[in-house]
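Entry:
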Amino acid sequence: MAVKHFNLPDPGEGLLEAEIVSWKVKVGDVVKVNDIVVEIETAKSLVELPAPYAGTVTAILVSEGDTVAVGTPIISVDDGLGGDVAPVAAPTTTVAGTFKTAASDDDEQIEAGKIGGAAPGGRVAVLVGYGPRVTEAKRRPRKSAGAGTSAAAAVAGAPVSEAVVTGKALAKPPVRKLAKDLGINLSQVIGSGEGGIVTRADVQAYVAGGGAEAANGAGSAAYTEPVFAATGERETRIPIKGVRKVTAQAMVASAFTAPHVTEFITVDVTRMMRLVDRLRTDREFMDVKVSPLLIVARALIIASGRNPGINASWDEGAQEIVVKSYVNLGIAAATPRGLMVPNIKDADQMSLRQLADAMANLVSTARAGKTQPAAMSGGTITITNVGVFGVDTGTPILNSGEAAILCFGAVRQVPWVVRGKIKPRWVTQLSLSFDHRLVDGDLGSRSLADVAAILHDPSQAFVWG
């Protein structure tokens, strides 16, 4: 038997760690190269990882819900060719920003250090089968009970059952989702159901503190004692990780690096709404969703072409303003995993129908949590549509590395003066936030006015586009 171990790779986004969301295989399954074996959640997206080896799964080394460092062995496969079992380090999970080795003799914690370096053969370990990353990290002792060694025993060839190897608690998918949403490690919850299965009531009791300390041990790293407010109501604590963590870091960096300026304009978009109605009945657009956001996107693309400085970035290292001759249009999307801003590559080269298709695919993919890392990087200018929430306007923070972001508010029918008479008209508010280091008031104002002009009279796009 020749057992090979698949280490968690970096799927191309500078990944340091990822959460194991769901295993697609179990011990005993036969897999082929490139069969999907696991789904992980990175800081940017859900990613399905393919098997780098063909053979029989002999061990699942980390449990669903665990956060592990890049380079950590996560699954073992017997390729059936014979030979010795490949040595493997104990699985590594992260707790409160540190790396914890599951089977270390001294039970140390390793602070998150630099992970990188070339794999055997001089290649860089990226997605499949390139070998382990080189890790440099500082170590510091931690007082704790010794960690379990079932995973290490499994990869050493000892007959260990899947349940022991994975440490996976028994629970139905809705209960797992509830625990994940609450930031709870199910392995810390005592199941009261038949066969030890964890029920929804068990999770709720754990959150409420009912017997959790006695069952799991005082001071458990996975459990935080609920805090009572003055009213007697409990607080809910949600771990900051994944998309929320990266979004928070990016917003802070953007807000305190780029000097933001926001300008506003109110515009009569009655003609735009008529165009949207016509497109919805047009044969060319019958099978795609047409919304006012499509026209706004096209208007911003045209305005960016007329005012190139708005579609640019600031290079601090080179002390240069980088003006882009292409538009990678970001669309801010609210998803169950938090705010995401995937972008449409070369949106300026698309027809209106192609842009509609791209926007529909972008939003549906983001909400399904399937956005790939490449779609989350390289954006040049962004739209955020707060109007879908009935909000009139806002002062959005720039997407990091971009010069401007357009905020599109709710479209409302209001009394409006037209040629000296009050008439009901469709009206919206737009705001444009921009980086005042490279965009001055003149450029920002002209860009916003151009977008407004096209929304007021879409035929203007034929003149400028």
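The first strand starts at residue 3 and ends at 7.
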